[in-house]
Amino acid sequence: MKNLILIAPPAAGKGTISSYLVENMGYQHISTGDILRNVAKEDSERGHFVSGLMKEGKFIGDDIILPLFKEELLKIKNQSFILDGFPRTIVQADYLTDLFQEIGIDDYVVIQLEIDSSLLLKRATGRRVCTSCKATYNVYFDGFKPKVENVCDQCGGDLIQREDDTEETFKNRYEVYRSETEPLIAYYEAKGKLKKVNANVTEEEILENVKRCLND
Ligand code: AP5
Ligand code: MG
């Protein structure tokens, strides 16, 4: 199976697609957002620093994220994997290109999720995440709502809102995406690795198109 890099604005559905591919196709998943949310819980200078930046919707510096990412990638490099949230800048993309070369990975596809920006704010502010199993819901969209308000369907855990899912922080995250991450689309297009998937549609349709890209 081809390795997959997902490029998309905040709250476009990267994590939702990844969960499906992990559960149904045996992919490994690296989410740098999840890695950094764990770092942000540390009661240390680094933890407080990361937590502060994430609450503002700003990127964490490469001195912190690059070694954390590399460590995770090296653990799973011999299996099919999804990169969700990495790379996010041209510097990170160059780093990844070099790392792939070093460890002999060339079989990958980059999927850009195309989505109307008007949908994103609701996807972010309506998101609820299980504190225990991390399952993700959305209070605004049918098919994504929990059966019982604030209770996880899968494990009964409490559902909470992510600290960066406020309207104000979402707007910052979106602006940073436009300026720092969107240039990666041209970067991977030039390498002949880019495919586009319409993410304005139902989850089933999105997954069908993602699977088609993985099989091409
Ligand atoms: P990260 O956690 O990666 O956040 P993000 O990119 O903003 O993406 P999200 O996790 O918010 O959204 P998603 O695309 O996964 O959507 P989801 O599937 O949950 O990063 C967070 C922060 O960490 C960054 O801001 C930065 O500070 C830092 N960071 C991370 N990586 C970094 C890096 N490489 N360098 C530096 N800093 C880094 O879906 C969203 C909602 O929509 C859910 O409620 C879901 O249920 C719902 N939904 C999904 N699909 C559909 C659909 N088809 N229809 C309706 N609703 C849907
Ligand atoms: Mg996510």
Offer a few descriptive terms.
binds magnesium ion; 3-stranded antiparallel β-sheet; alpha/beta; binds BIS(adenosine)-5'-pentaphosphate; 8 strands; Rossmann fold; 5-stranded parallel β-sheet; 216 residues
What does this protein structure show overall?
- The chain has 216 residues and is α/β, with parallel strands linked by helices.
- The chain has one domain (3-115, 168-215): Rossmann fold (3-Layer(aba) Sandwich).
- It is built from 9 helices and 8 strands.
- The strands form 2 sheets. The chain has a 5-stranded parallel β-sheet, sandwiched between helices. Strands 6-5-7 form a 3-stranded antiparallel β-sheet.
- The structure holds BIS(adenosine)-5'-pentaphosphate (AP5) and magnesium ion.
- The site of magnesium ion has 4 residues, from helix 1.
- Magnesium ion binds at residues 14-15, 31, 33.
What is the chain-wise order of helices and strands? EHEHHHEHEHEEEHHEH
CATH architecture: 3-Layer(aba) Sandwich
**Top CATH class:** Alpha Beta
Which cofactor or ligand species appear? BIS(adenosine)-5'-pentaphosphate, magnesium ion
* Silhouette: globular
Rg (CA only): 17 Å
Q: What is the percent of helical residues?
A: 40-55%
